[in-house]
Write a structure and sequence with these properties.
This protein is an alpha/beta fold. It has helices spanning 18-29, 71-86, 108-122, 151-178, 221-229, 239-249; strands spanning 9-13, 33-38, 98-102, 127-130, 191-194. The protein contains 6 helices and 5 strands, in the order βαβαβαβαβαα.
Length: 271
């Protein structure tokens, strides 16, 4: 069913790249207003400027594409093209549907402010997607085992991947509890979708922080083939595969689903 999220407002962290960007695109297609939240509006740069090829290892997450469109800008562009094609109303009468807010999800004040700005523009917050996460191991030339992992890497990972989810839930819940219930949406106050690695359910040999979703780009063809073979559906999948499920979980189709860890992993954890 199209437009399953029409009229709803979603705040999505980690919106500029990868899974977060795909969730934003999927939600927008379903009619949602989107508040894009990230440290930077543009995607991470995965190419080595000297060769034009993917880097031998992932670069610092502060290194972003130059001249690329931010997710909110891409959505605005797509909306404008759609409106022009359908002969929509004059520019001055159109409602803003997509915004960007800079925030570090490990800082309470940043997350609280992101929710405030979202509500200031759209009037309410209906869907919170805690998607921001980092993979510090992907910046190493190889995966590090527990005795090789620095305390700094551990603390930074926990600050974003764990505390960031807590803060997102905290301030989203505060807003959702205060706003009016929409009876046409089943009387629910809001939806929260948290994304995580399947490492929360199963271990991965040889490393503490490694995730099957963020394979080190230095992986050899043989190791990549081994990882692909571990997924019965074949390969690691695509961010859009998870984004489709994120749409369902934020819609009325998930009215009787709550508090469940739902693997979307091509059968990896079913073995």
């Amino acid at each position: 069913m199209p437009h399953r999220l029409r009229g709803k407002t979603a705040l999505i962290t980690g919106s500029s790249s990868g899974l977060g960007r795909q969730i934003c695109l999927a939600y927008a297609r379903e009619g949602a207003n989107i508040c894009c939240v990230d440290l930077y509006p543009t995607p991470r740069n995965i190419l080595d400027p000297s060769t034009g090829q993917p880097r031998s290892r992932a670069d610092d997450w502060n290194n972003r594409e130059r001249g690329g469109l931010g997710t909110h800008e891409l959505l605005q562009q797509q909306q404008q093209q759609a409106d022009e094609g359908e002969g929509e109303e004059e520019e001055g009468k159109k409602k803003e549907r997509f915004i960007y807010v800079k925030a570090d999800v490990s800082i309470a004040g940043d997350v609280e402010e992101a929710v405030r700005q979202c509500v200031q523009v759209f009037g309410r917050l209906d869907i919170m997607v805690n998607n921001a996460g980092i993979s510090v191991e992907s910046t190493n030339v190889r995966a590090l085992k527990v005795h090789e992992t620095s305390e700094e890497a551990w603390d930074r990972t926990m600050a974003i991947n764990a505390k960031g989810v807590f803060l997102g839930c905290k301030y989203a819940c505060q807003q959702m509890m205060e706003q009016d219930v929409k009876e046409e949406w089943g009387g629910d106050r809001g939806w929260i979708v948290n994304t995580a690695s399947i490492q929360g359910l199963v271990a991965y040999q040889g490393t503490l922080l490694k995730t099957a979703m963020t394979t080190n780009v230095t992986a050899t063809p043989s190791s990549l083939a081994s990882i692909d073979a571990a997924h019965p559906f074949g390969g690691m999948g695509d961010p859009s595969d998870i984004a489709k499920v994120a749409v369902v979980l934020a819609s009325d189709d998930a009215a009787w689903i709550t508090g469940v860890a739902l693997p979307v992993d091509g059968g990896y954890t079913a073995q």
